[in-house]
Amino acid sequence: MPEPNNSTQKTLSEQPSMIQVLLVDDDPFIRESLNVVLGLDADIHITGTASNGTEALACLESGTAADVVLMDIRMPECDGVEGTLLIKTRFPDIQVLMLTTFDDDEYIIQAIQNGASGYLLKNVPPDRIVQGIKTVYNGDMLIHPDIARKLAGLLRTPASPPVNEPLETHGLTRMELSVAEAISEGLSNKEIATKLFLSEGTVKNYVTEILGKLHLRDRTQIAIFILRK
Fold first, then answer.
1. What is the pTM of this model?
2. 88-138: per-residue pLDDT in tens?
3. One MF term in GO for this entry (predicted)?
4. DSSP string of 171-182?
5. Considering the domain 12-142, what is its CATH architecture?
6. Residues 189 and 200: beta-carbon distance below 8 Å
């Protein structure tokens, strides 16, 4: 059964200024540790916990609010890869950030293909996890360049040949294409703004336009779309 954090479980309307986070890990010690550490940040509100992907989905379907799901990648019954797919299929606007003790590229790539916004290793300092939550909440991705390159290689295997149709035929302007390519490299809006000499607000507007023109759901799909091309 899901493990709601009864002392903190509230709806989004009750905490409008805070980032609602659902913690998912099969280790109760890690769940409790993350609950305590992340709960110290004034911008983060832990709404509940679960021990696997199926329980996480049940929490969300039962009304637990979440902007970000912080989820272990390896769990029994329903791991983070499958859990990401379940959550993103049912709740596409919720961001999923993977936590792993392994530098497990295959699992990470599968999770990203299923809609995860990125990943962090569990041994990073707590402030890095806090920043990672805020990063994906703001619509950015956390993908190491090595993972981005491996993802590109996976998508360009003979079994899935690149599509030769020019990207311009999808109606992207030169600048929109530059922004989309930067997203596929795992850059955040701030990093894209610096690279292309734009404001972060302008980058966000470009991302919205790209999503609309390509009929995509989120930045992960933009990255995969560009890498396939």
1. 0.69
2. 999 988 999 999 877 677 788 888 888 898 888 888 888 999 999 998 998
3. DNA binding
4. T--HHHHHHHHH
5. 3-Layer(aba) Sandwich (3.40)
6. yes
